[in-house]
Write a structure and sequence with these properties.
about 80 residues, globular, two-stranded antiparallel ribbon, mainly alpha, single chain, 434 Repressor (Amino-terminal Domain)
Length: about 80
């Protein structure tokens, strides 16, 4: 997938554990792992909002696009 979630780096920069982060944003540590490992198919705007509020960042700090050539060139 061309969209990466950069939560690992943001948590490390802020010295926050996955458990603390999960509790702060209101999802389970297992779902944080799904996000961190790139297995998520979607993210709710309310969850993205909670992530940005907790980490004091912008959505572009959480999500990054890498054009890895996997796509077929058609828009999503």
């Amino acid at each position: 997938m061309a969209v990466r979630v950069t939560i690992d780096a943001l948590l490390a920069e802020r010295g926050m554990s996955v458990g603390e982060f999960a509790e702060a944003i209101g999802i389970t540590p297992a779902n944080v792992a799904v996000l961190k490992n790139g297995r998520a198919k979607a993210i709710r705007f309310s969850t993205l909002d909670a992530i940005c509020r907790t980490l004091r960042c912008q959505p572009g700090d959480v999500l990054a696009f890498d054009d890895d050539g996997d796509g077929d060139g058609s828009p999503a």
